[in-house]
Amino acid sequence: MPRLSSATQTYAARRRGRLGRMGTAPGQVLLRCLAVNTAAKIPSPPTRPHEDECCRRGCDPCIFDYYESALDRWYERVRKLGGDPDAILRQMSPPAP
């Protein structure tokens, strides 16, 4: 049986849902660390709830309180891995028109 190239293996893994873009596992972003010139896997930030997901009844905690808490934990985790959370968020946000 012929050996498959690494590109073919990566494509097959991506089709099976085991790899995301850039060869990372789903839910992770590949970040190139400038200081060390190695790639560190950084988790994706939490998804902000849509405005319509809030019931606007003054719940405590609100769905946005949970989001802020998750975002704080994500910031801490990225910093521990040596990343810059603000730079990652800027890279992920769509360009302004």
If you had to describe this structure to a student in words, what would you say it looks like?
The chain is of the alpha+beta class. The protein has one domain. About 35% of the residues lie in helices and about 10% in strands. The protein has three helices and two strands, in the order αββαα. The protein has a two-stranded antiparallel sheet with strand order 1-2. Strand 1 and strand 2 form a beta hairpin. The longest helix is centred in the last third of the chain and has 18 residues. The radius of gyration is 18 Å and the shape is flat. The N and C termini lie far apart (about 50 Å).
Keywords summarizing the entry:
37% helix, 97 residues, two-stranded antiparallel sheet, alpha+beta
Helix-strand makeup class:
alpha+beta
Strand-residue proportion: 5-15%
Provide the gyration radius in Å.
18 Å
Q: What proportion of the residues is helical, as a percent range?
A: 25-40%
Mean pLDDT score, rounded? 74
- Contiguous runs where pLDDT drops below 50 for at least 5 residues: 32-39
Q: What count of domains describes the coordinates? A: 1
N to C succession of SSEs:
HEEHH
* Count of runs of 4 or more consecutive helical residues: 3
The separation of the N and C termini measures 52 Å
Total number of strands:
2
Shape: flat
Furnish the topology, listing elements before pairings.
Blueprint: H1 6-15, E1 28-33, E2 38-43, H2 63-80, H3 85-92
Antiparallel strand pairs: 1-2
